[in-house]
Amino acid sequence: MKLPLVLLFLISFPLLAQQQQPRNEVSGSYGRIEVEDALDLEIYGASYNRYWTRQFSTRVGILSGSDVLPDDNGDASSRLLHGTVEFHPFSGRLFSPHVGFGGAYVRHYEDYLDSDETDSRLTTVVLGGIDVNFTPRFAIGADALYSAFGVESGNDRFARDLTSLSVFGSARFRW
Predict the structure, then answer these.
(1) What count of other Cβ atoms lies within 10 Å of the Cβ of residue 140?
(2) Residue 26 near residue 173 (C-beta atoms within 8 A)
(3) Which of 39, 137, 139, 173 could form a disulfide with 35 if both were Cys (CB 3.0 to 4.6 A apart)?
(4) Is the Cβ–Cβ distance between 162 and 37 less than 8 Å?
(5) For residues 109 and 64, what is the distance between their CA atoms, to the nearest angstrom?
(6) Are 25 and 173 in contact (CB under 8 A)?
(7) Contact 166, 144 (CB under 8 A)
(8) Which residues contact 150 (CB under 8 A, 6 or more apart)?
(9) Rounded Cα gap, residues 149 and 40, in angstroms
């Protein structure tokens, strides 16, 4: 009776190795967003990534952060909802770099000396990063996300450039 069970196990073992790579990924992130106009905010984020092939995926996510302005003159917050198409040339390896391009909705809010200002815009984003794959299901990653967010002056002669670079680390779970 033991021999058929052992044979069944040995026959089914290669089937486990043939399972496809996980196609879904969720991640939690922490980092900094540096706005070109001298703001540096702590950010938190979350994202969902869907792998369509071993090399191509799409990601949607949110990065959000806020901080007190220098000299306690108010506070600032920034939120970035983004969607990217990504290329992962070495997705099955220990070190897996990736690049992406997409769009984002950026909202920046400042409450400065009893006057508040909100700017929001659709813009393009470029993403680059590297993952360290500990197992097929668990990884940590480091990413940089650049968003071009120039504010048009309109009637405001003190218009600001809110182009930002977000740098963050992530813990990733795949299934």
Answers:
(1) 14
(2) yes
(3) 39
(4) yes
(5) 11
(6) yes
(7) yes
(8) 161, 162, 163
(9) 15
